[in-house]
Automatic annotation (TrEMBL), chain A:
Pfam families linked to this entry: Acyl-CoA_dh_1, Acyl-CoA_dh_M, Acyl-CoA_dh_N
Organism taxonomic ancestry: Bacteria, Pseudomonadati, Pseudomonadota, Betaproteobacteria, Neisseriales
Cross-referenced PANTHER family: ACYL-COA DEHYDROGENASE, ACYL-COA DEHYDROGENASE FADE28
This protein's record includes keyword Membrane: no
Family assignment from sequence similarity: Belongs to the acyl-CoA dehydrogenase family.
UniProt-recorded name of the protein: Acyl-CoA/acyl-ACP dehydrogenase
Keyword Kinase on entry: no
Acyl-CoA dehydrogenase/oxidase N-terminal domain: residues covered: 6-118
Record-annotated Acyl-CoA dehydrogenase/oxidase C-terminal domain positions: 228-368
Organism whose genome encodes this protein: Crenobacter caeni
Cofactor needs: FAD
From TrEMBL, chain B:
InterPro entries: Acyl-CoA_Oxase/DH_mid-dom, Acyl-CoA_Oxase/DH_mid-dom_sf, AcylCo_DH-like_C, AcylCo_DH/oxidase_C, AcylCoA_DH/ox_N, AcylCoA_DH/ox_N_sf, AcylCoA_DH/oxidase_NM_dom_sf, Mycobact_Acyl-CoA_DH
Keyword line: FAD, Flavoprotein, Oxidoreductase
One Pfam family in the UniProt entry: Acyl-CoA_dh_1
Superkingdom field: Bacteria
Taxonomic path: Bacteria, Pseudomonadati, Pseudomonadota, Betaproteobacteria, Neisseriales
Cofactor(s) required for function per UniProt: FAD
Family: Belongs to the acyl-CoA dehydrogenase family.
Organism for this UniProt entry: Crenobacter caeni
Span of domain Acyl-CoA dehydrogenase/oxidase C-terminal: 235-389
Molecular function as annotated in GO: flavin adenine dinucleotide binding; oxidoreductase activity, acting on the CH-CH group of donors
Name this polypeptide is given: Acyl-CoA dehydrogenase
Gene3D superfamilies: Acyl-CoA dehydrogenase/oxidase, N-terminal domain, Butyryl-CoA Dehydrogenase, subunit A, domain 2, Butyryl-CoA Dehydrogenase, subunit A, domain 3
Domain Acyl-CoA oxidase/dehydrogenase middle: 129-223
Positions of transmembrane segments: none
Length: 374, 396
């Protein structure tokens, strides 16, 4: 079944929904923001205790034997209250890469702490404003006792408090892709926390002559590329699930407003011009939903994730942008105030859209995957 | 359980043995068999398939045997349908009788009407057409004005029907007529069965922007229709039409896409994008990808609807998007291919043009029909807004 959740998935989703509604409701995010905080560290601890950081990791290193789709389901529920979680960076990206590319010894060294939530991980990949995992200028030079890494990374989700940094570099000699796992406190690693529109954690990371020993190299060449691609596809699907969750919230909120707000002596939802805009959005949302559900289901199979991920993130991103635009516009004056939550969702949509390839990027990728361009 | 499995095995075996391989592909344009008194076949396999299905009673598998049906129960009918789909068997004919008016007569018709009309439908011997739309009543169907005046044992019908598929090849029409101009808009409407051979009936084929079509306009000039041909009671026409349109949706879902041959979008798009000038190529690629993603998403939505519906979830909101999305996506796809093909897409007929691109031009123009016919896209959006989203009915 690709489109009907099983009992375990439903239970996880419900408990996640309860957790975010009770522990991290949207009002709480406003409080954090007012205090200059990007997340609630205590709540992150509680999520780890619920086992969420350990989903789909090997049991031998403290993982929870739940299908990987579980991460996407929890993240989608988090998106509904705009709650920040460690799952995206620490579980899907960092632990995912170590699991996919690391040796048994490396997995034993790093994964237990990530699974338990005792440590947090982040991925330092992109170097350009628009996502492009193929253009990596960070160089690792071989030295007598290991590697010396230099480079600058942007858009590192959770970078500012990550204990482990997964760094994508190129071998200065061979140009091979190299995947390193580094202690974030290594000399030469510097992190610049950013104040982003959605008030969630984001950082730039510099690597200035950072020393790494051989044990820090997870994989190189084709093995590194393959592991990175797999993990990025999973992460794109999780981003799509979050975008889709926000589309739902914004659509429902806007629909309720149209049924309540009166102008010219009647509910504005009675105006056909607005009805048709909502009906069109509804068709887009259901199309995107179908793509997201298929992609989330694919997370639990051995299927190649490239096409479902490109389709899901492309459709969900484009749809969420359209829904967010309409949500602001149809709310009128109140829609452009900070008081209304709609604007907070708009900002979050734009962040999720930009991460790991926006909908234009996904569409171009989709075109290549189906052979429209060679 | 065993019984239904046995039935399934026997249906499968029968179809394997009796459906000619050439009838397991979508029919090329113009190769659909039309039920009716002027039955013609373009090839022997068509006739074989038609006669074998007819003799099984499987044109109308779930109708009672006394009316020429197959006498199958609902479960058996579903098995037969899924086996037909599995083997990709063509519908052996187009038959609005069985798909549309037949089920209405079964439920609401008089015994005499059933005995007279159903067996002919079930054997594919009578062609039926639908007289609903009028020149003055399109989206607002209930505003129809075709008049039926009671006169002795007859109604006298005057007026016109339009967008009637295959009217010029039909033996009978089920029509909505206004029997009481003083009653309310909906209450004055009745349903009549009209013999197309009656004096005063004339038909005129309608030529579309895409060329010849199966659509006709039908004129009624003092046509006498026996009162016995009234379905249900006077004033029940609107209720009957609604019941009938529910069958239309079911019929479309049964025989829908499977039977529409088209150009292969991706195949053609790949070829044409490669030929485009380098500057345009990126933009064209983007448009093609957008179409392909929409189509991919739509297919996933169909699969999702099927799966979720099977699991007992309410999928009516999803179903309500199908007609709008399918017809609109279709139009965009053809529009995109037409742009890609440049002046090669401008051929109307004859020498000097690639055959596939000639077909493309017609299908592009034909795509405009489908965002209008069967409830315009705007009507579909109204339905979504009001019935699915629960927004107030503003009367538009």
């Amino acid at each position: 079944m690709r489109f009907v959740l099983n009992e375990d998935q439903n239970m996880l989703r419900e408990s996640a929904a309860d957790f975010f509604a009770g522990r991290l409701p949207l009002a709480h995010q406003r409080k954090l923001k007012a205090q200059g905080l990007t997340h609630d560290a205590d709540a992150w601890r509680e999520m780890a205790e619920l086992g969420w950081n350990a989903i789909a990791l090997p049991e031998a290193v403290g993982g929870v034997p739940f299908d990987r789709s579980g991460v996407a389901l929890v993240l989608a529920e988090a998106a509904r209250t705009l709650a920040a979680t460690p799952l995206f960076a620490s579980n899907l990206l960092a632990a995912g890469l170590i699991e996919a590319a690391g040796s048994d010894a490396q997995k034993r060294d790093w994964l237990p702490a990530l699974a338990a939530g005792d440590k947090l991980g982040a991925l330092a990949l992109d170097e350009r404003a628009r996502h492009d995992p193929t253009r990596i200028a960070t160089r690792a030079t071989r030295e007598a006792d290991g590697w010396r890494i230099n480079g600058a990374k942007c858009a590192v989700v959770d970078g500012e408090f990550a204990d482990l940094l997964l760094v994508v570099a190129r071998d200065a000699d061979t140009q091979d892709t190299l995947l390193f796992v580094l202690d974030a406190h290594t000399a030469g690693v510097s992190c610049q926390p950013l104040s982003q529109i959605d008030a969630q954690p984001m950082a730039r990371v510099r690597l200035d002559g950072v020393k790494a020993d051989e044990a820090a190299l997870l994989a190189r060449g084709a093995a590194a590329d393959a592991a990175l691609n797999t993990v990025l596809e999973r992460a794109r699907i999780a981003l799509a699930a979050q975008l889709q969750a926000i589309s739902r919230v914004l659509f429902d909120t806007t629909l309720a407003y149209l049924k309540q707000r009166e102008q010219y002596g009647r509910k504005i939802g009675a105006f056909q011009a607005l009805q048709h805009r909502m009906a069109r959005l509804f068709t887009r949302i259901e199309l995107a939903e179908s793509c997201v559900q298929a992609a989330v289901a694919a997370l639990d199979t051995d299927a190649d994730l490239a096409l479902p991920a490109a389709l899901a993130k492309g459709m969900a991103g484009e749809t969420a942008l359209a829904v967010a635009d309409e949500a602001v516009q149809l709310h009128g004056g109140i829609g452009v105030t900070d008081e209304l939550d709609v604007g907070l969702f708009l900002k979050r949509v734009q962040v999720l859209e930009a991460l790991l390839g926006d909908s234009v990027y996904q569409r171009a990728r989709y075109a290549r995957l189906i052979g429209v361009v060679a | 359980m065993n019984e239904i499995n046995d039935f399934k095995a026997s249906v499968r075996a029968w179809l394997e043995a009796n459906c000619p391989p050439s009838m397991r592909t979508p029919p090329p344009e113009g190769e659909m068999v039309l039920a009716g008194s002027r039955l013609t076949f373009t090839q022997p396999d068509q006739q074989l398939w038609f006669e074998r299905m007819r003799d099984q009673g499987w044109f109308a598998p779930d109708w009672p045997r006394e009316y020429g049906g197959g006498g199958l129960d609902a479960r058996q009918t579903r098995v037969l349908e899924s086996e037909l789909a599995r083997l990709k068997c063509r519908a052996p004919m187009v038959n609005l009788g069985i798909w549309m008016i037949g089920p209405v007569l079964l439920e609401f018709g008089s015994d005499e009407q059933k005995a007279r009309h159903l067996p002919g439908m079930a054997r594919g011997e009578v062609a039926w057409c639908q007289g609903f739309s009028e020149p003055g009543a399109g989206s607002d169907l209930a505003g129809l004005s075709c008049r039926a005046e009671h006169d002795g044992d007859d109604y006298v019908v005057n007026g016109s029907k339009i967008w009637t598929s295959y009217a010029d090849r039909s033996d009978w029409m089920y029509a909505l007529v206004r029997t009481d101009p003083t009653a309310g808009k909906h209450a004055g409407i009745s349903m009549l069965l009209i013999d197309m051979a009656s004096a005063g009936v004339s038909t005129r084929p309608i030529e579309l922007i895409s060329g010849k079509s199966h659509f006709c306009q039908v004129f009624f000039d003092n046509v006498r229709v026996p009162v016995a041909n009234l379905v249900g009671a006077e004033g029940e026409g609107w209720m009957l039409a609604k019941a009938l349109l529910a069958h239309e949706r079911r019929a479309m879902s049964k025989f829908g896409d499977n039977n529409v041959p088209g150009v292969d979008f991706l195949d053609l798009a790949r070829r044409l994008v490669a030929q485009a000038d380098p500057d345009s190529r990126a933009v064209l690629t983007d448009r093609v990808a957008a179409c392909a993603m929409d189509e991919h998403a739509y297919k996933l939505m169909l699969e999702r609807t099927h799966e979720a519906g099977g699991a007992g979830q309410d999928v009516s909101a999803l179903v309500a998007t199908f007609k709008y999305l399918h017809s609109e996506q279709n139009k965009t796809r053809y529009r995109t291919l037409t742009a890609l093909a440049g002046t090669d897409a401008l051929g109307w007929e004859g020498e000097g043009y690639d055959e596939e691109l000639l077909k493309l031009a017609r299908q592009w123009l034909n795509a405009y029909t489908y965002t209008v016919a069967g409830g315009t896209s705007e009507i579909q959006l109204n339905i979504l807004a009001r019935r699915v989203l629960g927004l107030p009915d503003s009367g538009g």
